[in-house]
Amino acid sequence: MTKTEIAKAFSNGEFEKTYNFIAENSEWIVVEENTFKGKKAIIENCNQVGSYFKSVTTDFRTHNIIVDENKVVINGTAEFLRDNKRVSFVSACDVYEFNDDNQIQKITSYCIQSK
Question: CB of 94 within 8 A of CB of 76?
Fold first, then answer.
């Protein structure tokens, strides 16, 4: 997978596709919410989030992808529905930093939930 494909899969909740591309000493910062240090902690959080995604209908929309050398930035929205009713709506921007081995070294996520 390319860096862009890895980043887009992660941003769209297709976490399992990205596990082989996460560095052991990586870090995922969800601004104003949490920080996950190391591949194991990131995968554990992905599994929790993935369980939630399976309990709702998800509609991910990618608006922009910006690539610059070892960085990929993706912004978009996610709508979560249950029984055809909106549970939540999030506008998000994920900044991915890759190491020289084409693995995710750091993710910084900005998520704004609609009121």
Answer: no
Q: List residues bridging with 27 in a β-sheet.
A: 37, 106
Number of domains composing the chain: 1
Distance CA 15, CA 49 (A): 9
- Per the CB < 8 A criterion, the answer to whether 105 and 99 are in contact is yes
Please compute Rg for the chain using Cα positions. 14
pTM summary value: 0.93
Q: What is the CATH number of the domain that holds 67?
A: 3.10.450.50
Q: Are 30 and 106 in contact (CB under 8 A)?
A: no
The mean pLDDT of 27-43, rounded to a whole number, is 97
Please answer whether residues 26 and 2 qualify as being in contact, where contact means their C-beta atoms are separated by less than 8 angstroms.
Answer: no
The distance between the two most distant Cα atoms of the chain, rounded to a whole number of Å, is 44
Q: Which domain holds residue 48?
A: 3-113
CB of 94 closer than 8 Å to CB of 11: yes
